[in-house]
Amino acid sequence: MDAETARTRLLETAYALFNERGIQAVGMDEIRSASGVSLKRLYQLFPSKDELVEAVLRRRDEDVRASVTARVEAHEDPEERILAVFDFLDAWFRQPDFRGCTFINTFGELGGVAGPVGDIARAHKQDLRDLFTALVAAAGRPRELAGQLTILANGAMATAGIEGSPTPARQARSAARTLLAATRPAPARTT
Amino acid sequence: MDAETARTRLLETAYALFNERGIQAVGMDEIRSASGVSLKRLYQLFPSKDELVEAVLRRRDEDVRASVTARVEAHEDPEERILAVFDFLDAWFRQPDFRGCTFINTFGELGGVAGPVGDIARAHKQDLRDLFTALVAAAGRPRELAGQLTILANGAMATAGIEGSPTPARQARSAARTLLAATRPAPARTT
DNA sequence: GCTGCGGGAGAACGATCGTTCTCCCCGATG
DNA sequence: CATCGGGGAGAACGATCGTTCTCCCGCAGC
């Protein structure tokens, strides 16, 4: 097996197991048996579990950001671009293996404690906030709206994860629409 | 030492440690040394770590609900009663040991897995939703608003926890005010 | 065919943790 | 004062886990 495919299989297998049961509850041996990559290779590619976790989170960060960006860029209207983030959430929450946001969950499990893992989670959420800040500016809305949209998105993730239901995405989208309507700069135009 | 005070000290110590570092990262021995209650007594009162965790979560659930209720009932105006929930969040997030919502964190750490602990977390969040549902009905607002406020509250908890900042409470409160204003049934009266 | 050698399978090791057991002290009771 | 029982301190036990080590197979080069 190629080293690159082994790496990919490890990251995908580890992400699936971490997502399902948490990080600490999954042993390296289980990642080995589920991925089919031997322990020797595993430790060649990732010298410790911490580094594997970091790599999984970094990859997840890239995947999520790419998916969100693709959704956003499918629209031209600045308001639609903002709502597209919530459409992404809706599609995500409907996936059968959805079990909440990896970064919120990881923070809950390992949080407080310093270290690279916490930094990655914080940076990921900061990126979400930055995205909303840019979209809000492009839509000509007041800066404060970005923070409110960030809270709506994170709240939808947390609520959907715990309740095991995708409906928070639609509810958050609807709230975002109301907030957008309340700050509409130009006089008319319906959504 | 009285059995009741031992029980209280155990629950408070365990909560503080779980809040700070997560559940799995805290050993029974550390709870013993931090609480000053011997292991024998600990296992007399809570025959297993799982039962201690359950008791801690149940107590936390009661404490939070009592605090929120007190804040809400300090106001008469139905709109103020809704906003009081976000004032509670603001006061909570400012406490130096705040590290996110215990139930969101616990779900992230142990989630997915069935069992009493997950049930308690889900029930706690359902209670928050029920509270908003009642407050929204009393304020004469449409039902959908309750879900949106729930998402705002949970989002403020998750965002404040990860960012380590209390400002999401104020941002969520401001968003809630906008949502309330957008659905105001009677013609006038300023907030 | 023989020799290395890279990699796979899984045993082994040391640490940690939940839980139980042992030993000892102390205070109450006659 | 002797006895007895409950509780404290901490050792002990068995399981799990991250990490390393051992053994062996299959294949490249001569």
TrEMBL record, chains A, B:
User: Ranges for the HTH tetR-type domain?
Assistant: 4-64
Q: Which residues form a coiled coil?
A: none
* Residues in the DNA-binding region annotation: 27-46
The record, for PROSITE patterns, names:
HTH_TETR_2
Keyword Transcription regulation in record: yes
Q: What is this protein called?
A: TetR/AcrR family transcriptional regulator
Q: Which InterPro entries match?
A: Homeodomain-like_sf (IPR009057), HTH_TetR (IPR001647), Tet_transcr_reg_TetR-rel_C_sf (IPR036271), TetR_C (IPR011075)
Write down the Pfam families for this protein, in alphabetical order: TetR_C_13, TetR_N
What is the source species? Bailinhaonella thermotolerans
Question: Keywords assigned by UniProt?
Answer: DNA-binding, Transcription, Transcription regulation
Q: Name one GO molecular function term.
A: DNA binding
The superkingdom of the source organism is Bacteria
Tell me yes or no: is Transcription regulation among this UniProt entry's keywords.
Answer: yes
Q: Which residues form the signal peptide?
A: none
